[in-house]
Write a structure and sequence with these properties.
alpha/beta, five-stranded parallel beta sheet, 9 helices, single chain, 5 strands
């Protein structure tokens, strides 16, 4: 029987500006299949521009096939972009994390990804905030999601350092000058995959 996968997030989860097959959830499924692990096409609840509260609202409107064998959560860049409260982010991210654990039926099947640093992209470098300021704000939001992930004992994959390689590698940014390219997403999947594989190892 194929495993099921629920991906929660924003533009970084749907793969804005790239083909759906190049998004990280689809590339993760492809990598799993190449390793002999059958996972269905991911159910994705994500939209460009979503903040934590908007993701929470969208989840309430979805029909979910719980439990899922795998749940990923990557959310928060738009909270940072809109200058939303870090305290509110912590509260809403914790609620989303609790929901993700519920949907997976196990903490071992929940995977949180850090927020990438968009400040190094052409869009970010042209923004009114400087690249270092954007990076520092992203770091603060990531301190929150990492702390909560560790508190709840779910998997945490820090993709932020890798995302910053886009500063020197233009091919890692999509044609819109802001979002990751398929190559960047592939790098995220390579970081994420070992933990996903490990979580399924007993049933392989």
């Amino acid at each position: 029987m194929k495993r099921t996968y629920l991906a929660l997030g924003d533009s970084y989860t749907i793969g804005e500006a790239v083909a759906p097959s190049s998004s990280f959830p689809h590339q993760l499924v492809q990598m799993a299949q190449e390793a002999g692990l059958e996972i269905e096409t991911p159910q994705i609840i994500a939209k460009t521009g979503w903040t934590t509260d908007e993701l929470m609202e969208a989840i309430e409107e979805e029909t979910l096939r719980v439990p899922y064998d795998l749940v990923s959560l990557l959310i928060g860049v738009n909270n940072q972009y809109r200058n939303y409260s870090e305290i509110t982010y912590a509260q809403e991210f914790e609620t989303l994390l609790q929901q993700a654990i519920h949907y997976a039926g196990s903490k071992t099947r929940v995977f949180v990804l850090s927020i990438p640093d968009w400040g190094v992209t052409p869009f970010g470098r042209a923004h009114e905030k400087s690249t270092p300021v954007i990076g520092e704000e992203v770091n603060r939001f990531n301190e929150i999601n990492k702390r909560l992930a560790l508190d709840y004992k779910v998997h945490y994959t820090d993709i932020t350092p890798y995302s910053r390689e886009a500063a020197h590698s233009p091919e890692m940014t999509a044609s819109d000058g802001l979002h990751p390219s398929g190559l960047m997403y592939h790098g995220w999947v390579k970081l994420l995959w070992p933990e996903v594989q490990k979580s399924f190892r007993p049933s392989l």
